[in-house]
Design a protein that fits this description.
The protein is an alpha+beta fold. Helices cover 58% and strands 12% of the residues. It has one domain (11-115): Orthogonal Bundle (Arc Repressor Mutant, subunit A), CATH 1.10.10.
């Protein structure tokens, strides 16, 4: 736990920085789509991430690329083809996100048990 010595949430907080990288309304749905569907083109992501606008998809993809969570590959064809894939760094998030899902399912079950 020595990595957390700067917490609670000082400007140097590593946990806050990590959560900022995946936080926001659209980052996790995009990462989940790429995890489930593999390499995807822009229009595939637009179709798979329900409710996202062109502007938000474009902006969020740029942020994810800047955070090294996705890789953007441009093919010099006519018309230009662009594909997005999860980076190796993002692939390491999968077990963490699965643990978060499990945690939420367990806490929901426990809370339902306390209400009865």
């Amino acid at each position: 736990m020595s990595e957390l010595h700067n917490c609670p949430c000082t400007p140097e907080c590593v946990l806050k920085s990590a959560l900022d990288s995946i936080g926001g309304k659209w980052k996790l749905p995009i990462l989940c789509s790429l995890t489930a569907n593999g390499t995807s083109r822009y229009n595939e992501l637009l179709h798979n991430v329900k409710g996202i606008s062109n502007t938000m998809l474009s902006q969020t993809l740029k942020e994810l690329e800047q955070d090294h969570l996705i890789c953007r590959q441009e093919f010099l064809e006519v018309p230009i083809r662009v594909e997005y894939t999860l980076s190796e760094q993002a692939k390491k998030l999968k077990p963490i996100l699965l643990e978060l899902i499990q945690w939420k399912l367990e806490s929901t079950r426990e809370n339902k048990g306390q209400e009865e």
